Amino acid sequence: MQKQYRLKRRAAFAYVYRKGERASARDLVLLGAKSREGLKIGFSVSKKVGNAVVRNRVKRLLREAVAQIAQRIDAGYMYVIVARPSLAGLPLVKVAEEVEYAFSKSGKLVC
What is the model's pLDDT at position 3? Predict the structure, then answer.
């Protein structure tokens, strides 16, 4: 995923948490809110998921999973993907399936 699509500011995360629509998969939660800036995606991985090494690995897996479907994601929204602790033990293939399922469940995946 390119850096231009990353959600970075705390205020933007707060906006998505407050106004966003939720779609959950087994190992993650997807929140999406309307955006005036175009496609922005942020990741939230709490300390419940594991230590710093595990959290960084989970974020890398999520970035790669999103990059695989980035062309098909509705660009008029800001998204936050919240990882659940069970996501830490999954391989990339399963993480990609979870991410795609959450986007399709929310209706934000363009065919």
Answer: 82
